[in-house]
């Protein structure tokens, strides 16, 4: 039995049944990982993960970079296998022969053929429920439908009262949800808060002025730090990745835009804007990308963005954008958004109503993602592959857990997690997040940041400033906040990248990350070694960057391998020197990351049967 990795807060090393572990040497590393002979920091760790300090998290991030787990992927390895860039646009995989090539001997000579080797099997009737396409929110039929007055008060169990809910446990408490979103019972309560002396309005104005002053100081410090790095002769920038000079200097003519339709049409695709309504009344915007050649006949794929982003994040890297690259491979691509993105409405609450902003990651996992998956399944009749980035992965892990919506796992062919935000990194312990963590009291947080949009001056600047100017200002700000480097990006694209981030988000959502996630270092309870996920969990692939300090991928892989017998972990890829955004914006993301994503989709779209690899013999050949 392997050595226990103590993620708990108070408990000592025990097995799932509570018995102590035997003293055994650490389990050897997986094939393909880069390790030294010494045991890893996580294997030596005797401190509980939830009690880790900033120094502990920094040591963990350093360990993740020096000793990654899984298949180690670097640019040098790709070039040695693939040759020049033309080989991977529609060619073989950097991971060897693809799973689809092994199974169906598909033809990879032409872009798009990969999605049609074996058309996906239809899901069984008992594997999903209620996946019917809903009418658009603004349609006459939708307006005539009778709805309950306050959907936030629906019995949670009533949403899952189905025989195929494998693994649902109403008593599950692995999700750490220490804070409860405030409940605003009726519209009358909101009006009472406003009418006598404009209490709430004055409160929000004060919060707006305070956060604007704080944000202005952050911008000044960020720009000053940015300039100081350039004029400081002793500061050493990280070496930039090798980039094709013609690609780096070419002029595409595209402008800075926040519209998905613009980027899709610019690169010759069609973009269909669809409305999906959640169980609690929010209307979500889903962008359906259509290739003019394939017309959406391939296997469906859902792309879900991270925090402070929207669907356009997957479309700003020109032809190498993940959404467009998957479209060129022949897949049927749906790029989804969470609630309030693109100023989408609620059936009952106006944007000025605090109830419009009263949600956190639990509501995203319980309502938004199930609505999106049900919509795509009902529209295509096929179990889609789900690809999430950052918060888009953390919320799906939450959705698939025992206490939220485990039945969704039966409706997905695979779950591909890019930079999974399950375990926190050391960035959340640095300034200004270290200062924001002090506002753990809800009253103090609401007094400073309000009860509606988080730092609304950011969205005001997005609307007032020219797109090119906002993009250039946002670059040093996000580098100052998250420590992002630009060594993996084309510099001419960087301002365009950051035109699509910093979008309006709920103050409650940021309160969760500062008061809960950054303290517990995980969205789940690491105190228990009992499985977080039931057997309905779909086949899983994890891609994480070894230089990512915002979230940590290695602890998640170790947790799944040790304590999650119901999770079929098909692929783990450690991307060399990749930070949090590099796997979707990196100039070499196609050969180093996207091909592995494609292989995962192909291996699982018709069902996944794990292949048992023969164990190596310890005896030497004579």
The helical percent reads: 25-40%
Give the CATH class of the domain at 120-192 and 242-440 and 490-604: Alpha Beta
Largest sheet: 9 strands, mixed
Largest beta sheet: strand ordering: 1-11-9-7-6-4-5-3-2
The coarse overall form would be globular
Instruction: Enumerate the spans where pLDDT stays under 50 for 5 or more consecutive residues.
Output: 1-46, 79-165, 613-622
Looking at the overall shape, the CATH architecture of the domain at 120-192 and 242-440 and 490-604 is 3-Layer(aba) Sandwich
- Give the terminus-to-terminus CA distance: 30 Å
Radius of gyration computed on alpha carbons: 24 Å
With helices defined by DSSP (H or I, 4 residues minimum), what is the helix count? 22
CATH superfamily of the domain at 120-192 and 242-440 and 490-604: Alpha/Beta hydrolase fold, catalytic domain
The number of E-state strands comes to 11
Structural class: alpha/beta
> Per CATH, what is the topology of the domain at 120-192 and 242-440 and 490-604?
Rossmann fold
Round the mean pLDDT to the nearest integer and report it: 74
Strand content: 5-15%
């Amino acid at each position: 039995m392997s050595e226990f990795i103590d993620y708990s807060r108070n408990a000592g090393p025990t097995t799932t049944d509570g018995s102590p572990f035997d003293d055994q040497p650490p389990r050897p590393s997986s094939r393909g990982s880069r390790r030294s002979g010494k045991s890893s920091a996580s294997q030596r760790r005797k401190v509980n993960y939830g009690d880790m300090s900033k120094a502990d998290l920094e040591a963990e991030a350093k360990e993740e970079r020096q000793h990654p787990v899984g298949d180690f992927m670097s640019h040098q390895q790709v070039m040695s296998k693939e040759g020049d860039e033309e080989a991977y646009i529609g060619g073989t995989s950097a991971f060897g022969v693809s799973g689809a090539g092994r199974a169906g001997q598909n033809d990879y000579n032409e872009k798009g053929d990969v999605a049609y080797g074996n058309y996906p099997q239809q899901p069984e009737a008992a594997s999903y429920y209620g996946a019917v396409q809903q009418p658009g929110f603004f349609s006459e039929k939708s307006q005539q439908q009778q709805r309950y007055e306050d959907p936030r008060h629906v019995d949670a169990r009533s949403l899952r009262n189905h025989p195929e809910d494998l693994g649902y446990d109403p008593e599950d408490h692995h999700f750490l949800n220490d804070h409860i979103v405030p409940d605003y019972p009726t519209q009358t309560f909101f009006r009472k808060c406003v009418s006598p002396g404009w209490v709430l309005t004055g409160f929000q104005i004060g919060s707006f002025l305070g956060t604007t002053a704080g944000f202005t100081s952050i911008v000044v410090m960020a720009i000053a730090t940015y300039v100081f790095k350039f004029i400081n002769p002793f500061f050493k920038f990280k070496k930039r990745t090798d980039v094709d000079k013609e690609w780096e200097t070419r002029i595409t003519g595209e402008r800075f835009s926040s519209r998905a339709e613009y980027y899709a049409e610019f690169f010759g695709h069609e973009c269909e804007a669809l409305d999906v309504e959640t169980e609690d009344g929010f209307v979500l915007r889903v962008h359906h990308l259509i290739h003019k050649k394939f017309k959406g006949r391939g296997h469906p794929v859902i792309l879900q963005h991270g925090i402070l982003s929207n669907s356009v994040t997957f479309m700003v890297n020109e032809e190498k954008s993940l959404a467009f690259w998957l479209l060129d491979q022949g897949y049927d691509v749906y790029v989804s958004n969470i609630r309030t993105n693109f100023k989408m409405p609620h059936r009952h609450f106006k944007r000025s109503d605090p109830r419009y902003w009263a949600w956190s990651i639990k509501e995203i996992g319980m309502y938004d993602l199930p609505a999106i998956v049900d919509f795509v399944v009902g529209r295509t009749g096929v179990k889609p592959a789900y690809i999430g980035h950052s918060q888009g992965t953390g919320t799906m892990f939450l959705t698939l857990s025992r206490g939220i919506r485990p039945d969704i796992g039966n409706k997905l062919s695979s779950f591909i997690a890019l930079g999974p935000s399950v375990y926190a990194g050391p960035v959340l312990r640095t300034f200004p997040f270290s200062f924001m963590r002090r506002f753990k009291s809800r009253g103090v947080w609401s007094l400073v940041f309000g009860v509606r949009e988080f730092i609304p001056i950011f969205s005001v600047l997005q609307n007032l400033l020219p797109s090119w100017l906002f993009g250039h200002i946002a670059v040093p700000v996000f580098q100052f906040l998250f420590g992002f480097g630009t060594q993996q990006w084309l510099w001419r694209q960087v301002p365009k990248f950051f035109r699509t981030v910093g979008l309006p988000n709920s103050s409650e959502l940021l309160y969760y990350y500062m008061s809960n996630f950054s303290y517990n270092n995980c969205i789940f309870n690491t105190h228990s070694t009992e499985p977080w996920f039931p057997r309905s969990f779909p086949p899983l692939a994890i891609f994480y960057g070894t230089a990512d300090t915002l979230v940590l991928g290695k602890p998640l892989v170790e947790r799944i391998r040790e304590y999650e017998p119901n999770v079929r972990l098909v692929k783990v890829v450690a991307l060399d020197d990749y930070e949090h955004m590099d796997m979707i914006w990196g100039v070499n993301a196609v050969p180093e990351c996207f091909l592995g994503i494609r292989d995962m989709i192909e291996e699982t779209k018709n069902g996944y049967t794990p292949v048992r690899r023969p164990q190596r013999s310890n005896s030497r050949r004579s």
